[in-house]
């Protein structure tokens, strides 16, 4: 764990097991309790038998989902794909960035079907043979220990570092805990491809803040206690609500917030996050919190010291 001290612009190399050294009684740890679904479904084209992958993104109404469709010569709207399990998927329309809207003709809810027939949406850099199935550990390893609410197509990776024993240590130290929900979509990971970052458009994602969580966060802020966000998805949720309402309040909605320097953080004081790729919106968010040059210098240090990047990589604590 690379620890960045913003006030005096220094860093230190520590272990995640030493996280309690940097938190104190009264701090409020806020986690994203979204749960990764088995988002990868497979099927074939009627007649030709050509293979297709249907990557679930979001339910729009019962049995109607936005997906990413990967296949050669996509069927025209009105066409369909036979699913590897029972049923078919009817193409309703296509979007501008490769997504499709489909209606599933199956006998059970789509998430139940995916639970029985789908595959874990592991990041593409984890290479597996094309015909390989999920390994038994995949669903457990690509899921936080506090995951509760189905809806994400990628894990909130900063939360993967936690085990129940760490929560026990933090609770004994007087660190409080709250949970929010933001269902991670592919938009979080799309690189910035425009020259002016102000022109980049984030895909929106669903969030929810419960009355219990809102009360805990609002109480901590009123007492000037630190809010410690675990992961950039937690930051997006809290900063969206604070920007819209001037305070943390209960509710649900959608957010396409894009945080980049300079940004006036209203809710988050401390951030635990993994290392992010160049040109990513996530790296820009981290730079907004700690300062662009300081973050880039710290990243250079992480590369020199062979920190691991990506989903199962090492982490950074910004205090």
For the structure shown, list the relevant keywords.
2 domains; 9-stranded mixed sheet; 22% helix; 319 residues; 29% strand; 6-stranded antiparallel barrel; 17 strands; Thrombin, subunit H; alpha/beta
Detailed description of the structure:
This protein is an alpha/beta fold. The chain has 2 domains: 2-36 and 141-318, QueA-like (3-Layer(aba) Sandwich); 40-118, Thrombin, subunit H, CATH 2.40.10.240. The chain contains 7 helices and 17 strands. The chain has helices spanning 110-117, 138-141, 164-172, 211-222, 232-245, 281-290, 292-304; strands at residues 2-5, 10-13, 28-32, 34-36, 40-44, 51-61, 64-70, 80-83, 88-94, 99-105, 149-152, 176-182, 205-209, 227-230, 251-255, 270-274, 315-318. A 9-stranded mixed beta sheet has the order 2-1-17-16-14-3-12-13-15. Strand 9 (88-94) and strand 10 (99-105) form a beta hairpin. Helix 6 crosses helix 7 (292-304). It is globular. It starts with a strand and ends with a strand. The mean pLDDT is 91.
